Amino acid sequence: MKLEPEHEMILAGKAGKAMASAMLTLVEYGKAFGAKRMVPIKSSHLAGSSGTKFFKAYLHILNQLVEEGVQCKVLTTVNPRPGYDLNIGNKLAFAKQKMLESLLADVGVVPNYSCVCYDGVNTPELGDCISWAESSAVQ
Predict the structure, then answer these.
(1) Are residues 56 and 100 in the same domain?
(2) Which one in 13, 70, 74, 126 has a CA-CA gap of 20 to 30 Å to 120?
(3) Same structural domain, 93 and 130
(4) What's the CA gap between 30 and 2, in Å, rounded?
(5) Alpha helices, DSSP H only, in 33-68?
């Protein structure tokens, strides 16, 4: 996969370890799907909105990004959060929810908590390239 000089720099660790790891993940996904290059995106939408104690790696990576001062470069929204305070079972299952929400805010994610990200907050225009992890946005 052809990388631009900025991507090569990030991959080499010049923007921090967390960003290098993120870039490596993108490169490996690109290779797996036969991508020839990366394309600039207008917005992003994350599916990782549940602060379950079992998502240790996700929380670890987000914490690294926060520690390195990484900020979203495009509008980034996030899926609905669980009702972690509804009952004792949810409080136990989603014990890391407040931590997750804090980390997402620290990197600049817009806390819309919706699976309908394109309704008001994250509305693409015709021709925009987007990077969304959301089943309701699949065409």
Answers:
(1) yes
(2) 70
(3) yes
(4) 10
(5) 56-67
Whether residues 95 and 51 fall in one domain: yes
Whether the CB-CB separation of 68 and 101 falls below 8 Å is answered with no
Q: 3: domain range?
A: 1-38
* Residue closest to 83 by CA, chosen among 59, 60, 56, 49: 49
In this predicted model, what pLDDT tens digit does every residue of 46-76 receive, in sequence order? 988 888 877 888 899 899 999 999 999 999 9
Q: Do residues 20 and 12 touch, judged by C-beta distance below 8 A?
A: yes
Model-level pTM greater than 0.85? yes
Query: What is the CB-side half-sphere exposure of residue 132 using CA atoms within 13 A?
Result: 23
Q: How many domains does the chain have?
A: 2
- DSSP, collapsed to helix, strand or coil, labels residue 104 as helix
pLDDT digits (tens, 9 = 90+) for 89-120: 878 888 888 999 999 999 999 999 888 888 78
**Residue 74, C-beta contacts closer than 8 angstroms, at least 6 positions apart:** 41, 42, 43, 44
Q: Which two structure tokens, joined as six digits, stand for 14?
A: 């010049």
> Do 55 and 109 fall within a single domain?
yes
